[in-house]
Structure formats: C-alpha cells, structure tokens
C-alpha cells in the first residue's frame, strides 16, 4: 500500500469526521504560504499550516472559544509532534449558522 502524501490532513479529516460528524468540512493546506518564516527554518514538513471550515451540530450552544478548544483538543497529538501542525485557522459553525450565512450570501 502506498504511503499517503498528506498524512497530517488525513489524520485531521479522520479525527474531525469521527468525533464531530461535520456536515461541512473544508481543509486547506496553507503551509506553502508560511515556508519562508523563520520559525519554519529547517522544517521539512509540507503540512504545518491549515485553515479549516467545520460545520457541526456538536458546536450547538457553544461560543467560538469553546468550539476552537474542541478542535485543538482533537489535534493535540498532531500539534505536539516534531514537524507537526504549527498553526490552525478555524471557522466553526452550527448548521443553522451556515444556513443563515448561505441565505445572506444569496441575497
């Protein structure tokens, strides 16, 4: 079996899907935009900076900081490992919030 070219993204997708059961999950790898930063000097990983859009019922009744803590908790191993996730940009919504956003964009 061939080794994945995106093991970090694969791990994120699996954990988020299993735990949060999202109706929307977008994972954008923005690592190439940050490769020149001094903090990335010597890092060979191509999966260090991600932008996520997650819509899930699991976020219902929670403020943004609590939602973000849920995601950070899921990614703690990936963030702790050498060459792992250095930065996560998160947009977290409930299905109702996403529906309102889509209606607003359509108007």
From TrEMBL:
Biological process, per Gene Ontology: [4Fe-4S] cluster assembly
Region spans: Disordered: 85-107
GO cellular component, one term: mitochondrial matrix
Pfam families: BolA
UniProt xrefs under InterPro entries: BolA, BolA-like_sf
Chain coiled-coil ranges: none
Protein family according to the UniProt entry: Belongs to the BolA/IbaG family.
Protein name according to UniProt: Bola-like protein
Species assigned in the record: Aaosphaeria arxii CBS 175.79
């Amino acid at each position: 079996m061939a080794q994945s070219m995106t093991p970090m993204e694969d791990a994120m997708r699996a954990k988020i899907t299993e735990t949060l059961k999202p109706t929307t999950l977008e994972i954008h790898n923005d690592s190439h935009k940050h490769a020149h930063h001094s903090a990335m000097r010597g890092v060979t990983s191509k999966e260090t900076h991600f932008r996520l859009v997650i819509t899930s019922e699991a976020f219902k009744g929670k403020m943004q900081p609590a939602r973000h803590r849920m995601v950070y908790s899921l990614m703690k191993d990936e963030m702790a490992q050498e060459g792992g996730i250095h930065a996560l940009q998160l947009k977290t919504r409930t299905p109702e919030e996403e529906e309102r956003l889509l209606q607003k964009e359509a108007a």
